[in-house]
Structure formats: structure tokens, C-alpha cells
Amino acid sequence: MKKLLLSVCLLSAILLSAVAENYPYRSDVLWVTVPNHADWIYKTGEKATVEVQFYKYGIPGDNVVVNYEIGGDLMPADTKGSVTLKNGKAIIPIGTMKEPGFRDCRLKATVDGKTYSHHVKVGFSPEKLKPYTAMPADFNDFWEKAKTEQKEFPLTYTKEHVEKYSTDKIDCYLVKLQLNKGGQCIYGYLFYPKKEGKFPVVLCPPGAGIKTIKEPLRHKYYAEQGCIRFEIEIHGLNPEMSEQEFKEISNAFNGRGNGYLNNGLDNRDNYYMKRVYLACVRSIDFLTSLPEWDGKNVIVQGGSQGGALALITAGLDQRVTACVANHPALSDMAGYKAGRAGGYPHFFKRATGMDTPEKIKTMAYYDVVNFAKLIKADIYMTWGFNDDVCPPTTSYIVYNVLNCPKEALITPINEHWTSNDTEYGHLLWIKKHLK
Predict the structure, then answer these.
(1) Overall pTM > 0.85
(2) Residue 246: which CATH number?
(3) Is 304 a catalytic residue?
């Protein structure tokens, strides 16, 4: 059954979330934005308004002038104006949209010589959003050939116990997984429950960047509660390297003009992410080879780039039984060609020379929306409206094309983050969907 679970925060919850996540720690000011539809969603043609509130030291900002600009999701402003707060509040007309999408109200207020910014997005019939990106006629053939070629290389890896990430309840191993005869590899931390038995396996691909594996024990509750979890990096860099070493490599090989997500984009066979996508499939090969695997449950879970790779793996590999993805990147990347927001890495906004037939063609072979159409596994997605990294436009587009059992947790106030409670909820959802 397809279910859409909508998380709508009451004002007190919004205040708590905003203090915790959307503002600098211990900020003197607080913005609160309250659309006149509690779920922040309107039908196309309906007019939206937002009540804006501004507090400093918890005191309403009376007579504070708020300047605003309103435009489409990640699009230039088409409306500008200002309002003067009375008792810390004012109403701003957001307008409407004739076509499905999002409007973003960007706010600025200068108080005591310092300028403060905020924004709020509302959606118009987002459940009707459709991708710009089309599936190439030979999409399946291309990826089946790539997977077949990879299978010719035998499963090869090393596995070393890591004491510092092991506890009385879990064991951690550093795995070096070979990908091909060219010697390319990935690394990952593999976490086991410290008990006898057979367990579900969970693959966790990373967010974007060249960096170490973030806080390996932050999701230790997966192994503590009976899952084998494999947290990977995608560049073949040992996560035991220092932060400084990772920073130096990133500075050298991941700039705006030479980043890995641009690398080889002129040719679908040479694109950097081909190896990465196949690495996720090879990771499933590895996990399902483990004698401790329960033989039934294969889960992928991640956020941002990791959310994209989770969905891509679910589309590429029919062994996947469940997938959890937060605000997936790499989704309808060429959507800017339709005059609206496209997905991270925002090739058409953040780099030059991207709008060529060759690069647009390659994007289609690597776009999440085309893999999402192939997924048969159970899917759980979550995203926020105020996200400018992986915009709600593209998250809805991915969700809308899914033709499988699916659920969504929509948290409108979220920018590019998920709370600890939401992330723990992923494990609870997974446990409910075990085969």
C-alpha cells in the first residue's frame, strides 16, 4: 500500500526544531514562518500567505522592517517587497503557481546594524511534479552490461578488526573491497552484532565529498539491534587517514571545476560515478556472501548523495528488499532545462560548460529518477521543504515516479538535515519491513 505520512509541526515544535537545527547555536534571534496552510501545501491556483515572526532575545521585533524576495525553488526572484512587523509579526503574500512546484520566500531584517536572513518554501500540487529527465532507450542494457562485466572480477576483500569502534555489543571491521582488475577499491566499516545468529544486512553509502566516514559509531544501534551494517566511502581512500590528509586530497581533486561529480561527464562509459554505482552493487555482493547474513533481507540507507546511491542501488540490484533515502541528490539533474530547480550537484548553476548534448545525455544514465522507476523494493523517503541543497522539487519528483510500496515522512521546516529521532526512526521502519 502506498502511504504518505505527513509530519506537520505545531508552533511549539517548530520553535524547538528551529532552535536546534535551522539557526546558529545560541543565536540571539529567532525567525518563525507560519504558512496559512498547516501542511505548507496548496493546490495550483490557490494563493498562499505566510505569517513572519521575528524575535531577538525572545522579544518580538516591533517595527522591524523585513525585506523579502519571492521566486521559484532555487530560481531568481520575481517578486520583491517589504513589511513592517507589529508586535513581531506580519503577513507576506506568497502568490500562487499555475504549474506544480514550490515558491520560496527569502527574508532579511537588519537589527542593531546586523542583517539576519531566513526563508520558507511552500508547495503547489507537488504530488503532480514530473521529471524533465527521460529514460534512455538502452538504459537497462547499458547497466546490465556494466554489471555483467563487473561479475567477471571475483569478489576480493580484506577484513581487519577495529578495536576502537568495537564495544561489548558490537564488533567493527575495516573492509577493503576490490572493485575491478584495475585495482580500484572502496573501504568501509562493517559492524556486526556481538552474538550468534543470522542477520539482515544494511548498506550505507556516504554523502557527497571526499572525506572520512563520519562518526562511525553514530548509528551503532543498527548492530546493537540485530543488523549487519556496512558504512562505505566511494573513492578508494582509507578512512583511517587523518582529517588533514582528506582535506588536502579534496582541495586538490574536488574543486568546483574539477570535482569528481564533473569527472568524465562527456561520456557515459567514462563518467566517474559509473564505478561508484557499481561499487554499491559489489557491496551487496560482499554483504550477501557473509555467512552471518539471514539470506533474505538486504537494505540500503543513506542521505543526500547517500540517499541517491541507496535508491540507485535498489534500482540496479533486485536483491535489495528495502530502501531508506533522505533528500536524495542526483535527482532530475537537468531539471533546470525545464525552467525550475534541478538536483544536486546543480550542474547548471555551479559550474560552466555543463549544458552540452553530451553531458545532458550522460546525466540521464546516472539520474536517480530513472533508477527509481525500476525499484520493486519497499521504499521510505524523507525530505524537507527548506532544503536548498537537494530541493523539495526533486525529492517529490523521485517519490512521484516510484511504482513500488512506498512511504514518505515530509518535514516541511527541514533544511538539508535530519534529526536524530528521524534517523533512529529509519531503523524502526526497517525492522517493521523485514522479510
Answers:
(1) yes
(2) 3.40.50.1820
(3) yes
